[in-house]
Structure formats: C-alpha cells, structure tokens
Amino acid sequence: MDLGIKGRSAIVCGASRGLGRACAESLAREGVQVLMAARRPDVLEKAAEEIRARTGAVIRTAAVDVTTPQGRAMLLSMLPDPDILVTNAGGPPPGDFRDWDRDAWIRALDANMLTPIELIKATVDQMISRKFGRIVNITSGAVKAPIDVLGLSNGARAGLTGFVAGLARKTVRHNVTINNLLPGPFDTDRIAAVLGGQAKAEGITLEQAKARRIADNPAGRFGDPSEFGDACAWICSAQAGYMTGQNILLDGGAFPGVL
Question: Which residues fall in a coiled-coil region (predicted)?
C-alpha cells in the first residue's frame, strides 16, 4: 500500500532508540525526508546511518534536548515547517508519589505534556495553510490503564491527551490530524526500566518481573518496535485524514476494556 507521503518532511523526536527510532525508519521507508532528534549525538548518528543504509532516504539529525526552549528552537531552525511531527520524550522515572516534590512534577510535565504542546504550537499553523499535516504523539498505554509506579507519567500524559482532544477537532477540516499512539509493553529500554522499578518495589528479580508481564499479555510476548513504527507511518498517511483525536492502543490486547 502506497501511503502517499513520499517526499513529505518529518520531525521525529526521541528518534535514536526504541519506538522513536522505529517511527523514523518506517517513515523513511515510505520516502519521507526525516529529521531525527535526540540528545546523544553518537547514538543518534549511528541510528541515522543505519536507517539511511536500509532505506536510502534523506535523513538529517539534530542532537538537541527538545524538552528545553533552546533545544526546540535549534530543532525548528533546521525544519520549521514539517508535514509530519512525531513527538516523543523519555518517560519520567517510576516511584512512589510520596517521594516526588514539585520539581519532579514540573520535569515530568515539561517533558511529556508541555514539550509536545510547544512543538504542535510551532508547526500546526503551517500545516493548516498547506492543507496537510499529521501529528502523532507517542504517549503510553498508562493513559488508559494507569500503572501505579508511573504516577508522574500517568499525570503528565493524561494532560496532553486532554489538550489534544480539543485541538484535533479544530484542525481536521484542514486535513491536519492529531492522534496519540499508546504503546503497551514493547521490547525497549523503557520497559526494562519500568520492570526494574516494579521488581525493586516487590522484592523480586527483573527476570521474574519480565516473565510475569509477558505471561499476563494475551499476545504472550512484548511488541516489536517495528510494529509500532509501521502503525505510526499509517497514521501519518494520506489515507488517514478522517481519523483525528484518537488514542490508539498497541498493547497486544492487555487492556481489558471495550472502549
């Protein structure tokens, strides 16, 4: 299926590893010119080189911290008017809410709520003027099924979800969609960190925590990041212009609800 986005431009944040990298690669495979952003230049450039070699796509890199105003300004100076924006930032650490002070909450909100909003604010009007735009926010399955040790993430990402719900209904008439892609357990560094926190809290080993999480998933496995990347690419496709304001859960069926 031709997704109709060849020659489009995209910013993908948190693109050096994990789900962000998978989104960058899937878009590149569709002929999108991708600007990959992440903090560590060595890891980022290595990932970009590998994607260039596999896809032949035009890939640029921006070694910036998008959670800072300076980082966002540098990123947007390189590509101020992307057709596609994929927001993504590492989740805050797990823990007990009793241990989190105001600064911990502000850091979580900056990374996982306010940064995506600032990036949307900086790019959405140009998308509207061109009558094409696709914005995908990588959030978390915890938005639908909160995880007790991820209170910082639960709160910040829920705030972003509420913001998107309102804005997405205003932009869609201009062929600009905004959707949230909610990962469940994928085989990434992030799931290892979350399971490590749970293991520590419960006094079990990391291997035990991982085995239990896999056993509890109807799919009997963790997701492959490439599956996530391909889902992101379709949401960014020309064919997906009638879907907006949605929270799309990729979790192997772990969420037990109907809605």
Answer: none
